[in-house]
Amino acid sequence: MVSYKAFILISTLLLISYVHSHDDVKCTHDDEPYTPDIVPVDEDTTLTSSEGRLLESSVYPNIRIYIDFTYLEKTAPASYSSYIKNDLAPPVVSWFEGALRVKYPMKGKLKTSKSTICDKATPSALKSGVNADFVSLFDSKVDDNNVVASSRACQLADASKRPLVATTIFNRNQLEEAGGDILLHEKNMYLLIHEMMHTFGISSSLYKYYIDDTGNTRTGHIKKQTLNGNVFSVIDLPSVTQRLRNFYGCSSIQGLVLENDGGNGNAGSHFERKYFLYETMCSGGIYGRRVSEFSLAVLEGTGWYQPDYSYAEPFFFGQGQGCTFLNGTCSSNNLKFDEYCTKSDRRCAAHGRAGGRCTADAKTDGCKYVNPYVEYDCENPDGEDNARLANLQVYGRESGSKCFNGDLNTRQSNSGRTTFCFKYTCSGSGSDTQLEVQVGNEKIVCDKEGPTAIDGYYGAIDCPDPHTFCNTVGKKYCPRNCMNRGSCVDNKCQCNSGFTGIDCGLKA
Questions:
Q1: What is the DSSP code (8-state) at residue 95?
Q2: How many CB atoms are located within 10 Å of the residue 131 CB?
Q3: Are 117 and 135 in contact (CB under 8 A)?
Q4: What CATH number is associated with residue 496?
Q5: Domain of 43, in residue numbers
Q6: Distances, alpha carbon 372 to alpha carbons 142, 358, 417, in Å
């Protein structure tokens, strides 16, 4: 007979294996070399200065996107097709149409006379033409591998080389219907944003087509840089590199470091996971992703778009850590940065939304990080099922709680370290910043970093540095700028009629 302790151990290991395997999904873009078709279209080139002078961003119109579901509806079950078509694609398309202005818009309808496009028979809508600047053909298949989707641009404009038509094929074994699961729906939205970012330009097959402000083809923007003994490709663009130097406080960085692991389909088309762990352009399907300014800055650097940076979300992984963060190695002893971990106990993930376990993978070059689990996510309404002292904590999408480390417990003998989800408020600024944490019916004041005891309990809650916490993990903001479906008022989304959720990503 298996003992109770053995049962718990086996169950925990199975849970960890299950969660991690589902976070290690990837997408493919360049498994086989391909060259997009260059097609003649009628673009408006009058909006871009020929003298190298940037025009006001308001001159450029917001991009218009058309998604064709012809092949998705042929390959997917009706419920899956309906979810993608009616629930997932609309908020993501709305987000892009708000976040991007296009420098070379179409003058007339976007259409093609070709009988095939993206290796498929041309959909009827594209034959007659659509009022759009960009078209994506959605399709699906079922694969047993861990690839969530495959995406590529199929046609580029002959003058600007801007992507016009693309395809995204979902693996239904990896991108599942949300079925009312709000956190899974959010995860799917980030995955789709990720895929469309690739087809808009963040793909190694498209780097050679980037243009500068005068419309000339960029050269020399893909470089090699050696960091901690490993050779990486970096993308050096005016809109990107200085932002990164300011962000890290490192003047020697040559550009944005691209993934060097995973082979074709991963390496070169994603941001290096070690440095951009939960950024949406890393490979993988981690919960709690963010669209940072750097993804938008790369799209600006293509020469095809002018982003609205208010659509970027707060991102702070490695912020202010200097060149050592980039050049150090984690092979023997993890770097002394909070972004990385060494111990195996449950701790808060770097983005502060969920607890998880210390882990490493090939894409982090030996650096261990806290892999967030949805079971321990503060926005998971069922999170209390896995919580110690659940009666003191607050869970749920709209709760506003964040993750705190500690060993608080009801036993005199130490129960070990774990994570807690508490509501909080920040006040003051600079060195006078104060953090107040609501623990059940009691409020504790964190005016400095360190453990804080709670009356009636053993152990303590780890107070973070209040200034750091309130400007990173605890910073209030409107997720994804309310998906362009509402207004951000006092860091909360006021959704337009017909939409709901903290990000307006759901239909009311």
A1: H
A2: 10
A3: no
A4: 3.90.132.10
A5: 20-209
A6: 27, 9, 16
Instruction: Give me the half-sphere count of Cα atoms (radius 13 Å) on the Cβ side of residue 477.
Output: 19
Residues 50 and 71 in one domain: yes
Angle between helices 182-200 and 89-99 (to 10 degrees): 50
Whole-number pLDDT of residue 335: 64
Residue 183's domain is classified under what CATH number?
3.10.170.20
Q: Domain count of the chain? A: 3
**d(C-alpha 55, C-alpha 213), whole Å:** 10
User: How far, rounded to the nearest angstrom, does the alpha carbon of residue 290 sit from its chain's CA centroid?
Assistant: 4
User: How far is 484 from 136, CA to CA, in rounded Å?
Assistant: 20
pTM of the model as a whole: 0.92
Instruction: Please write the tens of the pLDDT for every residue from 123-135.
Output: 999 999 999 999 9
For the record, the structure tokens of 440 come out as 């059940």
Question: What is the C-alpha separation between 142 and 129, in angstroms, rounded?
Answer: 31
The tokens for 342 are: 């060494």
Tokens of 38: 């260059």
Residue 142 CA to residue 123 CA, distance in Å, equals 22
User: Residue type for 376, please?
Assistant: Y
With a cut of 50, say whether residue 66 has pLDDT above it. Answer: yes
Answer whether residue 30 is part of any domain.
yes
